[in-house]
Amino acid sequence: MTDAIAEQPGSAAHDRPDGSSGPQRQPSSERYWRLIRQFLKFGIVGASGVVVNNAVVVVANKTTQSLWDFDGHEAFANLLGTQFHIRWYHVFAVLAFVVANLWNFNLNRRWTFKTSGKSSWFRELVPFMMVGIGGLLVTLAVQTAMINPESPIALSREIWDGSSGLRDPIYWGNLIGVCVAIPVNFLFNKMWTFRAARDHHVPVHLTPLPEGDDK
Q: Where are the transmembrane segments (predicted)?
């Protein structure tokens, strides 16, 4: 009698009802609800990341105001000799991106996609940060459009006049930009960064009983 091979849940190979073996495909409804659960978890992690992100922006902005007497609206550097500038709120957003993405990465790795132990930390970090850069570009674009007074979708300065933290357009522009980037980040991270959770298979070899002893 030959050894039988069983697979733990999520394995690619199993014995089919007709006796053949091959890759197992989950029912479409199960795959759908699994995707929904992952997206909800990703959203929860993302929400915590938004808090971290905005906290970094607030601390950075308050620090520059306190130490150097300027805020995020000041120009950081001219953009290639044009009339456009990289402003300090862009710098704050980049700093917040690094901190929040490291936070999100570790939570998603351990909880959302559960790939901890299935792939190396650094191997998953690189694509995660690369996907995050795409999200960062989305965030910066939306943030700039929300804050630039000449933008057709700029936040109204009659409401967001900077008179308090809750009415500071820098914080709201950053928040809206981060939220817009979340769905894009989820799709790319599921399909690329954390694919180890989908591709990981653990075969379990069962030793058969001697003939005549299987009672």
A: 39-60, 86-105, 125-147, 170-188
Q: What is the torsional sign of CA 119, 111, 198, 4? A: positive
Do residues 27 and 89 make contact, with C-beta atoms less than 8 angstroms apart? no
Whether 8 is in a domain gets the answer no
Distance of CA 117 to the CA centre of its chain: 19
Rg (CA), the chain: 25
Q: Show the domain range for 92.
A: 23-197
Tens digits of per-residue pLDDT, 204-214? Answer: 344 555 565 55
Query: By CB neighbour count within 10 A (0-12 exposed, 13-18 middle, 19+ buried), where does 77 fall?
Result: exposed
Domains contained in the chain, number: 1
Other CB atoms within 10 Å distance of the CB of residue 28: 8
pLDDT digits (tens, 9 = 90+) for 133-161: 988 999 999 999 999 989 999 999 899 98
